Amino acid sequence: MSPAYQNRIELLQGTLDLLVLQTLQWGPRHGYGIVQGIRTGSGETLQVETGSLYPALHRLERQGWIVSEWKLTDKKQRAKFYRLTRAGKAQLLRERSRWEQLSDAIAAILNPARTDGEV
After folding, report:
1. What is the pLDDT at residue 4?
2. What domain range includes position 39?
3. Count of the separate structural domains present in the chain
4. d(C-alpha 15, C-alpha 96), whole Å
5. Does residue 99 form part of some domain?
6. Longest dimension (CA), the chain
7. Closest CA to 39 of 78, 3, 11
8. pLDDT for 58-97, tens place per residue?
9. Smallest Cα–Cα separation from 26: which of 79, 66, 77, 83?
10. Under 8 Å CB-to-CB from 9, ≥6 apart: which residues?
């Protein structure tokens, strides 16, 4: 197994939606821009495959959390750009709150507070 593969972190179900919504919080982006935003924002740790990204984008669009429109990229190529809706911004806040609760709960298990007499 290659070191790059060993260092990959699989995303928990639902985490990709949070990452996409957060990335779009920074402004409209096309699919490749979303992938790059997640990759660079995570210090090259998280890599989203297109086979995962586009179903997530379609799901988020069906929920009304993002909308898309065709535009030209800086390189004059047609691409579908996605942006957050008002409902998407509200969902992002809910998802962030849930993520913080989850990460706090995991941290509590990984680093339990020691009580008197425990080693």
Report:
1. 52
2. 3-109
3. 1
4. 10
5. yes
6. 67
7. 11
8. 999 999 999 999 999 889 999 999 999 999 999 999 999 9
9. 83
10. 45, 46
